[in-house]
Structure formats: C-alpha cells, structure tokens
Amino acid sequence: MAGGLGDLGQCIRGISYKPSQVKAEETQETVRLYRSTNIQDGEIVEEKLIFLPNSIVSKERILHYGDLIVCMSNGSKALVGKSAPFRSEDNCHSVGSFCAIFRTRDPELRDFVRFLFQSLVYDRHVLLALAGSSINNLKNSDIERMCFLFLSINKRLLLLPISLTR
C-alpha cells in the first residue's frame, strides 16, 4: 500500500519573530528556538540558540518528545529537508520560521517516520519539490504529500525495499 506522510502525522511551520522579541538569555518565561543551523548529521546541536518569550509561542508549536525538526527553507538546497528528532521531555523548545515540526499521530510510529525522513525516497521527494524554483523552500503540504510504499501487518508498518536508506 502507498501512504503519504500526512497520513502518519502533521507538519507545523515554525515561529516568525521580530528581532526586538529576542531575549538575551534564557529564563522561565522564554522558549528555546532551534533553527536550521541546529540540525547537523541528523541530530540537534544546542549551539547559538535564540530565546523568545513563551507568550508568543502557541502550544501547538511547542516541541514534544519524538517530534522531528525539519529544515524547510535555506539558501542551500542541500540543507532543505534535513531533519533531527527532538529527544527531550522539556516543554520549552520550538523552531524558527525556516523550520517545521513533524508530529507523528501515533507515538509507536516515531522511529518508522524518522526512518522515512532519512531515506533516499524522501531525498528524491525533496529534490522534486524544489525543482524549477530559485527559492529553496518546502511547504507543509510538500512534506505531507510525500508518498512511500509500505505494508501494514498486524498494525506494524514495514517499508518496502524500494525505499532504501541513504
């Protein structure tokens, strides 16, 4: 069977903010903001974080354990689409406007979805979405429409061999 990422979860675009809203340091009233530079080799790097008042961050945009942070826009095509799993229980993190959160509907499928985001098929989908554009930008719908072939056996999803990892 074929299924889109939108069948497995939801893509939530990051936060836009004004420079005047950035706080100099972290407090109990701030949220840590990850940007595309914080995604390196499939992991989150805790460097050069931005702090924003939590009053401007909706609950939907607060990262949950197991969410994927996805780079949606960048000057380099090679960086668009890269992702990293969020592995913290803290509820004081979000992402900037050039990133998105991919939140899996079923927590049991987080590892499977993370695998899809690291596959060659995903890479091809990203390249196709960016083809013909001088702006390296993915929309939420670009991610949610990406289709993969997989089998469902006793509520377990198995990716078919056509979707090999990098």
Protein traits:
4 helices, 12 strands, single chain, disordered C terminus, 3-stranded antiparallel β-sheet, alpha+beta, Adenine-n6-DNA-methyltransferase TaqI, Chain A, domain 2, 4-stranded antiparallel β-sheet, 166 residues
How does this structure look, described?
By secondary structure, the chain is an alpha+beta fold. The protein has a single domain (2-159), classed as Alpha-Beta Complex (Adenine-n6-DNA-methyltransferase TaqI, Chain A, domain 2), CATH 3.90.220.20. Helix content is 17%, strand content 29%. The radius of gyration is 16 Å and the shape is globular. It starts with a strand and ends in a 7-residue tail after the last strand.
What's a concise summary of this model?
The protein has 166 residues and is of the alpha+beta class.
Number of strands: 12
Run of helices and strands: EHEEEEEEEEEHHHEE
Number of domains: 1
In the CATH hierarchy, the architecture is Alpha-Beta Complex
CATH topology: Adenine-n6-DNA-methyltransferase TaqI, Chain A, domain 2
Helix content: 10-25%
What would you call the structural class?
Answer: alpha+beta
Low-pLDDT regions: 161-166
**Shape annotation:** globular
**CATH superfamily assignment?**
DNA methylase specificity domains
Question: What does the secondary structure layout of this molecule look like, with pairings?
Answer:
Blueprint: E1 2-4, H1 5-8, E2 9-13, E3 30-34, E4 39-40, E5 43-44, E6 50-53, E7 68-71, E8 83-85, E9 93-95, E10 99-104, H2 110-117, H3 120-130, H4 140-144, E11 147-153, E12 156-159
Parallel strand pairs: 3-9
Antiparallel strand pairs: 1-11, 2-10, 3-6, 4-5, 7-8, 7-10, 11-12
